[in-house]
Write a structure and sequence with these properties.
By secondary structure, this protein is an alpha+beta fold. The chain has one domain: Secreted effector protein pipB2 fold (2-Layer Sandwich), CATH 3.30.2450. 33% of the residues lie in helices and 39% in strands. The protein has 4 helices and 8 strands, in the order ββββαββββααα. Strands 1, 2, 3 and 4 form a 4-stranded antiparallel beta sheet that branches. A 4-stranded antiparallel beta sheet has the order 5-6-7-8. The chain is globular and about 40 Å long.
Length: 143
């Protein structure tokens, strides 16, 4: 079965640090459907940490359902493992409005999120260190 493809857009030139918060543009692209929207600005490290943990849980059978929240706004992605290879994705707004249903590879989900963890090199280059960055480094070292 051919799986749908998706991509996480994370734009390093938009990343800023204010005190211990790091924000930047991050959003999903499901074959041209952008979620929550193009140029969505959010707490990227918090999101990546949460999404890495959730995708790891799904990939390894710890859970079969996870919700990938955005910190700003009423948006989240509900991902449910269907079988060993695929999961369903629902894009949710305001807890109830289902904007899209989609099927993706479980492995692609994890790999796409894990690719974004290389962002940690950018933070080191900037000389930034926060508890969220330390947690991100933990995931890189242990997953």
């Amino acid at each position: 079965m051919i799986m749908n493809k998706f991509k996480i857009h994370l734009e390093t030139d938009t990343i800023i640090k204010h005190k211990n918060s790091i924000t930047g543009i991050i959003y999903f692209d499901f074959n041209g459907i952008l979620f929550p929207e193009k140029d969505w600005n959010d707490f990227i490290i918090v999101l990546l940490n949460n999404w890495t943990q959730s995708s790891y849980n799904i990939l390894n059978g710890i859970t079969s359902l996870e919700e990938f929240y955005f910190m700003d706004g009423p948006f989240f992605i509900r991902i449910q493992k269907i079988n060993a290879d695929e999961c369903s994705v629902e894009l949710i707004q305001n807890q109830s409005i289902n904007l899209l249903e989609y099927k993706i590879s479980v492995r692609d989900l994890f790999n796409e999120i894990f690719k974004k963890l290389t962002l940690n090199r950018y933070f080191k280059k900037q000389g930034w260190e926060t508890e969220d960055i330390k947690k991100l480094q933990y995931f890189i070292n242990n997953i």
